[in-house]
Amino acid sequence: MLLIHGWGGSAASDWHDNGWGGLLAGHGRAALAVDLPGHGRLPQSHDPADYADLAAGVLAELPDGGPLDAVGFSLGAKVLLELAARHPDRFGRLVLGGLGGNAFAPERLGRELADALEAGPRAGTPAAVSDLAAYGIGNGNDRLALAACLRRTANPVLTPDRLLRVRGPVLLVVGEHDRVAHPVQPLADALPGAQVRTLPEVAHLDLPASAAFQRLALGFLGEGRRLA
Q1: Which residues form the AB hydrolase-1 domain (predicted)?
Q2: What number is the average pLDDT over the span 173-184?
Q3: Domain residue spans of the chain
């Protein structure tokens, strides 16, 4: 079971620390949680050019063989869709958390956030930007690597036409208070047959820790095993 975290998180902070490994093991699944390029505790590049293809960086971490079910959160969900569009035969059921219309949009606070990571928040830095910078650093990431990732040439670039290549069943899960992913419908329309679930009282960054999200994801992924 592939798990891809969101921007500013890591395999440890989004998945392991929130108990996903144990939950999956209890359902007979082994968790493969990978760090996005520019994230995690290993040394990372500070050159934006090295983040020109995030999906290729994740693909290099995947085992050979056959289709993987997967869960992605936020940027990780966007990368997961890119992978599934490039290699539809390698993926089965997909759970995409914290992703909606933002799948087709650039990172809204990217430049300001990169500035805050490189030089620190300044007078006049919006609170949302300062909070996101603190979130990324607090999860054990290299602040300059995070900034370089934000300054990359835009990728993945998803379009409704490209998403027609995605073959497996898809579940979209967003929190009621997710100001990043809403509106969800543009993405749901581009993935015919996708199921959409909205979790009450859940904000964007709270989704990986949400027990309701975990239950929905495990139930949806388990449907595939019962049908096999």
Answers
A1: 2-208
A2: 96
A3: 2-106+157-227
Query: For the chain, where are the alpha helices, taking DSSP H only?
Result: 20-26, 54-59, 75-86, 110-119, 127-138, 143-150, 160-163, 185-190, 211-227
**Mean pLDDT calculated for residue range 81-98:** 97
pLDDT at 227: 42
225, 5 in Cβ contact below 8 A? Answer: no
Helix axis angle for 127-138 and 110-119, nearest 10°, is 60
Residue 194 to residues 143, 159, 168, Cα–Cα distance (Å): 35, 16, 9
pLDDT tens digits, one per residue of 31-56: 999 999 999 998 999 999 999 999 99
Structure confidence at residue 124 (pLDDT) = 87
On whether the 2-106+157-227 domain is CATH 3.40.50.880, my answer is: no
Do 88 and 21 touch, CB atoms closer than 8 A? no
**What is the C-alpha to C-alpha distance for residues 108 and 111, in angstroms, rounded to an integer?**
8
What span, in angstroms and rounded, lies between the C-alpha atoms of 23 and 218?
8
The answer to whether residues 91 and 22 touch, using CB atoms and an 8 Å cutoff, is no
d(C-alpha 9, C-alpha 76), whole Å: 10
Cα-to-chain-centroid distance, residue 107: 13
